[in-house]
Amino acid sequence: MTALHAARVAARIRRLGVEVEKVHGRYGEFEVRVDGEPVVKGGPMAFLGVLPSERQVLEAVQAKIQQ
């Protein structure tokens, strides 16, 4: 579930013209970084499969790259 979600989110971020590197983490780990700084963390709910939506991730990435 997490890997599939990460792939979908990565594809959407690439459409913004942003380079994406996926790194495999531990089970239930979900984090998105821009220039090495976390902009989205899945937190403890990611372990249960509850992940930030694509929309939430895209908004956080866009906000960071517009700074």
Number of helices: 2
Q: What does the radius of gyration come to?
A: 11 Å
Shape: globular
The portion of residues forming beta strands comes to: 5-15%
Query: Termini, distance in Å?
Result: 31 Å
Low-pLDDT segments: none
Description:
With 67 residues, the protein is of the alpha+beta class. Helices cover 37% and strands 13% of the residues. A hairpin with a 2-residue loop joins strand 1 (31-34) and strand 2 (37-41). The relative contact order is 0.22. The mean pLDDT is 89.
Short summary of the structure?
The protein is built from two helices and two strands, in the order αββα. The protein has helices spanning 2-14, 54-65; strands at 31-34, 37-41. The chain is globular, with a radius of gyration of 11 Å.
Task: List key phrases describing it.
alpha+beta, two-stranded antiparallel ribbon, 37% helix, globular
Layout of strands and helices, then pairs:
Blueprint: H1 2-14, E1 31-34, E2 37-41, H2 54-65
Antiparallel strand pairs: 1-2
Helix pairs in contact: 1-2
